Amino acid sequence: MRRTSKLVVLGGLGLAAIGLAACSTFICRHAVGNRAVPQPRKSVDLKKYLGRWYEIARYEQGFQKGCEGVTADYSLRADGSIEVLNRCRKPDGKFSEARGRAKVVDRDTKAKLKVSFFGPFYGDYWVLDHADDYSWSIVGEPSGRYLWILDREAIPPEAEVLRLIDRARKLGYDTSMLLRTKQP
């Protein structure tokens, strides 16, 4: 059986959460891009975090191989948890979709969540940093193997993308491992 790695999702990708959930049971083998993942920098207002996010860049993972046009939609569920819908366009042109749910595990900051796409299996999802107006977000998890840079715009200005990549570098991430996501 091939082992998969830990994943994160919510501010990012459902596909990532799928991998994360699967990895919570197995040993992770993906390269580590940050051996000293920082604690989230700010509290998160979940109501402001909800809505659509576009993936701008990520650490490539097998479950996301070749994905373009990646989006993550978050909405509040009646039980107080968060509905997660991740989508991407695969190399064959078909769309892949993953539905899951997230729950807050750090009640003080609401910046640490657990996301599940497979029943009882949850993966970490840490909102490491975000804009005050929630126009961008940097998402990771404790192993340093996963990283997503998200934006509210599908194609933000290049200067903003470079600024966000530099912000991830300042958080301790090896930004040479980032794959820029093509958006339509």
Quick summary:
With 184 residues, the chain is α+β, with helices and mostly antiparallel strands. The chain contains three helices and nine strands; from the N terminus they run ααββββββββαβ. It starts with 13 loop residues before the first helix and ends with a strand.
Q: Which helices and strands appear, and what pairs or packs with what?
A:
Blueprint: H1 14-23, H2 46-49, E1 51-59, E2 68-76, E3 82-89, E4 95-104, E5 112-118, E6 121-130, E7 136-140, E8 147-151, H3 158-170, E9 178-180
Antiparallel strand pairs: 1-2, 1-8, 1-9, 2-3, 3-4, 4-5, 5-6, 6-7, 7-8
Please give a handful of descriptors for the protein shown.
alpha+beta, 9 strands, Lipocalin, 184 residues, eight-stranded antiparallel β-barrel
Beta-strand content estimate = 35-45%
> Strands of the biggest beta sheet: in what spatial order?
1-2-3-4-5-6-7-8
- Mind telling me the CATH class? Mainly Beta
The CATH architecture comes to Beta Barrel
Structure description:
- The chain is α+β, with helices and mostly antiparallel strands and 184 residues long.
- The protein has one domain (14-180): Calycin beta-barrel core domain (Lipocalin), CATH 2.40.128.20.
- It is built from three helices and nine strands; from the N terminus they run H-H-E-E-E-E-E-E-E-E-H-E.
- It has helices at residues 14-23, 46-49, 158-170, and strands at 51-59, 68-76, 82-89, 95-104, 112-118, 121-130, 136-140, 147-151, 178-180.
- The chain has an eight-stranded antiparallel β-barrel with strand order 1-2-3-4-5-6-7-8.
- A hairpin with a 7-residue loop joins strand 4 and strand 5.
- The longest helix is centred in the C-terminal third of the chain and has 13 residues, at 158-170.
- Mean pLDDT is 87; it is low at 1-28.
